[in-house]
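Extended Data, record Cholinesterase-like
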Amino acid sequence: MWKFILLTVIVSTVGQRVINTAQGKLRGIPMDGYVSYSGIPYATINSSAGRFQKGGVAPTWRGVRESQQRHCTLSSRPEECLHLDVHVPAKTNSPWPVLVWVKGGSGQYHPGKLVGNDIIVVIVSHRIGPIGFLGMNNEKIPGNAGVKDVILALQWVRDNIVAFKGNPNKVVVAGQSFGAAMVEALMLSPISHNLYHGVILQSGSIMSPWAFNYDIIERATALGKLISSSDNISSILINSDIGELVSKCDKLDAPYFPFGISVDKSSKNEGRLLGDAPFELLKRKDRSVPMMIGHNSEEAYVFVSMLRQANVRKKLAKDLSFLLPEELKFMNEWELKQVFKQIEDMYFKDNTSLAAMLIYHRDAYFVNHIHRSVSLHASASDHSVYYYQFSYTGNAGVKPEPGIVKMGAAHSDELAYLFSNEVLDGEDVAVQQRMVQLWSNFVKYLNPTPQPSDLPHWETVNPSNPRLLDISTEVVMMEYPYRKAQKMWDEIYEKFYYSRNRITAK
Ligand SMILES: *[C@@H]1O[C@H](CO)[C@@H](O)[C@H](O)[C@H]1NC(C)=O
Ligand SMILES: *[C@@H]1O[C@H](CO)[C@@H](O)[C@H](O)[C@H]1NC(C)=O
Ligand SMILES: *[C@@H]1O[C@H](CO)[C@@H](O)[C@H](O)[C@H]1NC(C)=O
């Protein structure tokens, strides 16, 4: 009886959880061990003309605003996307360190496990797709709107998280895949200065060919021309229906995502996200913070069905060129042939199996770019860089494709352990606990394995020989496993990517 009364008292006070912010009052929803304040608007956009521009001041309201589920998709109106969710431990020993999770797309993230380790989790939605990343290098369409949204969200966290018993001086920003590339863009930008104290980049880098566009105006122009024959492309893009922009993107002949992060030359200095190409900025970076960065051991497994359909093995027998990252630029046939030969010798010697294709894609689209980013950050930074490989193949995450053995962790598999609300069992539970512990330790201490700890010591990166922590049923430090291939990619990118794009980017 007493137990029952006590329980109802606790539930009803938690249920009443109303917080006062500068915008107005918010009511949270009690969850299992935490309280969620969802759908909080952190910025405004009032007109079609402003849809590609930086958002304005966050709205205010009277009375108590209820939590609400918002879904930001490719074709949402921009104001639908400028919302964040705050998940707060239902305990008393605050102030809590804060993890700000930057969504990569429109996926759902369940924060329960991380919040259970005594941190606040803030999930940030932002403009995505053409609305988030079209750029014409003019004031109406400067580019990078999605990343500028995240900066407004981080300012919101700085100014409001105290009301949620969060610590504004302990903020770690994290993302996965395109979300990781966006977080890396923040690290390279002068306008996000002092808004966070650590970063986590999972399976993505702004160095990846799918994350950054050198030809943003050409891409935006091509999209405009698919919609109208008028000469004023900016006007077409501003006045088109968002659904039409999104559906026409499918018709663009662009590899990977049609629109990514770009240099924005048009904005005045104080609003400019990136003034130069990422490689240049990474070399002279001076505003670094501690970071965790890594990849999954079989990133490319998510491409299995696509690679099967595309009948790549047949094409491969004739010509490799369709496989090369778009950003490699060759002056002549001879240069191209040299690179083909190197790649063929490395990956496809007497072997064009799907397994060989997956290894090639892992390196060409993910791992080699993450590794270059690790080396550059570690060289230019005084702060710790923690490098990992997630290699656990469990029951959660991407399901195995019939006929193709899943040898390691696919792209996004680690999210199934960090952000899942499924009940796991067996070894999966131990791996989940370890992941959550490493990640939340980094948020709390900017060190994933503070001593004393039952975890092995995670060495920081030595730029001359970056080693990494392999995370699976065991957790061990090891040599970077793909050194031979990395050497080849370093040479190829040194010759055929940076130097030439460096000229056109200026
Ligand atoms: C939208 O309108 C509100 C209220 O008038 C204003 O505070 C805000 O700055 C505007 N947003 C933009 C982007 O102009
Ligand atoms: C093109 O359209 C934009 C947006 O409507 C406008 O600001 C700009 O002045 C136009 N440019 C020309 C050359 O007409
Ligand atoms: C082809 O390469 C894959 C990946 O390295 C390997 O697993 C497979 O055994 C190789 N097959 C042959 C026939 O060499």
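Summary. The pocket of 2-acetamido-2-deoxy-beta-D-glucopyranose (ligand 3) is lined by residues 351, 353, 355-356, 359 (CB under 6 Å).
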